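Good morning C.,

I know you're traveling, so I'll keep this short. The sequence:
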Amino acid sequence: MRGAAAVLRHELAQRRLLLLASPLLGLLALAAPLLPGTADAGGADLRDTAVLFVALALSGLTALLLGSSVIGADLAARRLAFFFSRPLSGAAIWAGKLGAAVICAWSAALLALLPGLLVDVAAGAGGSLLYNALVPRPLLALWLGALPLLVLVTHFGGVILRTRSKWLALDLAGAVTTAAVALVTFRRLQYWAWLDPGWVARLAAAGLGLASIGLLAASAAQVIAGRTDPVRGHRSLSLTFAGISLAGVLAFAAVAVRWLAIGPQNLDRWSFAAVSPGQAWVALSGPAPGPPEYAASFLLHVGSGRSLRTRFARGTDDVFPVAFSADGRRAVWAEYDGAQESSPVVLLMDLDRPAAEPVRTAILERELPGRLAISPHGDRVAAVEGKRVSVYELAGGRLLATHSFEDLGEWPEPVFMGEDRLRILLSRWNVVTVADLDIPSRKLVAVATFPDLGWRRSLSPDASRIAINSPAGAVAVFDLAGGRQLARLSQQGARVRANYLADGRLARQVVGPDGAELVLLDGDGRRLPDSPRFRLPPGAAFGWIFQADADRLLAREDLESREGDLQAGWKLLDLRRGRMLSIGPRSLQALMPPSPLTPAGKAPLFTDGTHLLRIDLETGKRQLLGPARPFHSVYRPPM
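The tokens, ready to paste straight into the viewer:
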């Protein structure tokens, strides 16, 4: 410490003229209001701004000049041997010289500010110079904190440029490699996930801190190990800085690769986007280990366990624009093009081809589509952007038709009625509007309206009927083509709910004091004479109702226990025999297709929170398919 203090005093004494000139320059800045043309600029504000500018410029110039010369110039002129000929260690010489450069930079700023502060105090302003709007105090403090880093950077540059050593090639290669690895790693993270701006700022601060540590260690190594030999000092400087910076960047890259190289089993929880018809593929997403707000999404092939990392774009209300064709052969979804949250693009994947990969289409939207719908044959896609619906050809990305529904309603819901017609449902002011868009002519060919009773709606498979469940416990069935009400399903003292099944029949449930009764109706809401009745005891009701095949339904039974907790069990309703069988407990969660209009199949998918499994409806046997994690917020179809 004594040696470092002696060197520090020596260096400060050598630069005493600089310390004396700093307040004189500050005095010159006080004359700024006397310049021609500044009468209307505000004398006090102009004076304070000029003083701050002079102080910051003088301190920066001092750090730049002293950092590049305090050791580099002495080393090149062989004057550094004077210090090593004394009983001083290399660490003391390094600390004293660079410490003097930092102190001179700080002192130059403070001494240049001193005349302005004294004038403010004398004028009764109480040091208003430090509250200047153009140079806020946080920026001033940041500048003063950056001066030591500027000294280190200029010292590094001064040494490597003065020695003219071949090690300069290593410096350039190391800098390029370090920057490239850091940039590529960050861009990969940014490509696969939205990054929290606060985390990015902390990452940048950590990178700056690592660079500062590398510069500090390299600067010390240059003096301590290199002593008076310029080439050896340059070599020590380069190897130390390159080693620390590359080690830090490679560590960051290794952690980032670990964050990126994950599968569905690594998600903290699952949030399902959709399940394909036939339940061969599951589109899922959820938070994953990594930076704050880090999430990942996948397409998981249930049979083989193969998973494909995707970048499903998350829309408003956590909705994923993902759609499957009715035959389950194709999937489309929206991703952001390049960096997250910029230029959404639609991707296409043929699910029936082994080892298929997503293919980018030419469909590029201005904003993220709120909803996607794919035609029955998977050749066309409808994208909802705000109140505008656009239909594209998937093969070439050609725009086939587009229409804005500003005057008809909000929240368009598109449904393909074949390849050449799109039916759109819109809501506004308790009114549901149905509009049919003829794709070849690009015109609306039919428009009908009917009252919106609210709550949940269920479309028939051919999109010709709709059943609206009202909060009052009644169901209204409408013909979508003409807006005519076909039936009203209600019962005094009971709640009625209904939803369409995959074969077009309507499953009606009546929940009253005596329990719940389920019966099938035709598509118009009329009772089928041969339909069996399924009953549950008081306090019970059917939840989800899906069609497994032509003769069986799959439903969840909800029971309210004495403690008020909701319990659930899965029931198989045999329509041919009129029997109801239990196939699973409450702990099972069903992975159903995105619509109850798609048959669940003879072996529907479930998860018990630990494994994916299928349940054979014929034998009740369970088949484990692979690990799973608990999930939140699955799709709940209209009831």
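Safe travels,
E.
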